[in-house]
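Limitations

Structures in this collection are predictions, not experimental determinations, and the ligand pose is part of the prediction. Treat each record accordingly. The example that follows, with S-adenosylmethionine as the small molecule, is included so readers can see exactly what is and is not provided: the inputs are given verbatim, and the output is the predicted complex.
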Amino acid sequence: MAINEKRVAQHFRNFERALSGYNYNEPLSRYLTRFFKENKQMGSSDRKMTSRFIYNYFRLGNALKDANLLDKLCFAEYLCEVESSLLALHYPGLAEFSSESLEYKLNHLQSKINLDWKEVFPLLDHLSESVEKESFVRSHFVQPDLFIRIKRGNELLVSSSLKEKGIAFKELNPNTLALPNGFRLQDFSKLEGKHEVQDLSSQKTISFMEASSAEKWWDACAASGGKALMFLDKYPKVDLLVSDIRLSILRNLNDRFDKAKLASPKRQKVLDLTLDTTTILGKEEFDGIILDVPCSGSGTWGRTPEMIQQFSKQKLQEFSDLQKKIASNVVKHLKIGKPLIYMTCSVYADENEQVVNYLVDQFGFKIEKMELIKGYENKADSMFAARLIRMR
Ligand SMILES: C[S@@+](CC[C@H](N)C(=O)[O-])C[C@H]1O[C@@H](n2cnc3c(N)ncnc32)[C@H](O)[C@@H]1O
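Predicted complex:
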């Protein structure tokens, strides 16, 4: 491979500039969109390389903290790519092994430069017990897939349209497809409203939400309705109340329902679940509550690796306290004998099993089903879900 040294140096300078302007107050993807808009002189290959470098850099998380920027990027390129001009230029000895497995390359860097995989991801000793630590950490060097959930009744139409266009996809079940990352679904206007972008593990949580037609349910942290859309696609006759602390996000929910050509849930409320909910809901009780609580999002950091360096024990404690408070406040609105579906997109026991155990101890819930859904085995996010029955 002939290396254009000037181009490689230019790509590295672009990366340095993009990185130094990032202040972590917004998602990296949004920052980069703005950065590219403000730097119109950058061509498409410059933009592509800057994105690649900055994402790969963040994938190293907290490892190699003392290494200089160029070295760190080279090692990240080694782990994340099978071919890299930057690596070939600066570390030709490593570049020779670029096409080896990730496991091999991690071991190689461990022996060569003391890279310790245990330093990549924060607070590994807090992970839910069933997470296999090394595989989980390793998964952060690979970009997850893009998953869609096909609305019931549209399975054939969506998959045949993609086939017609020669798009390679994996069918995981009739309603779930994995697509190559970066695939521009928005270019397929014909398919609008017939599918939702939704991670594989998130789709799996539907098995925790078993409901019956005439029931009344509450999605208490509905956000823009990812779970609500999935729930009502399966249980269209359930009477669903959706609420969130943010009014703006409920507007997004309505937009998504409009696009999906589904009637938005009739009952919507802005509700802060850390406060007394009876002022708004009175003594209302539900046949089921979906509680997809605010969390660290640590099961999704393969998509947002910029978050890895920002996390701390204190933040974890704050999330765990908030989750216990929110869960405690919704319990009184659940009928006895009915399920609370507690969910996070976190891999930390403090936000998962520990909150469930708290609910069991404080309110006598029975655990019907509980699982850390291991997305890292399928190029997907990891999530936690539990179906808890109120016994008293
Ligand atoms: C993990 S997201 C929910 C995702 C959503 N269920 C979905 O599937 O798209 C958590 C939501 O909790 C909301 N939230 C945060 N603090 C809250 C509070 N104190 N009371 C109610 N909702 C809160 C956030 O606004 C956020 O939309």
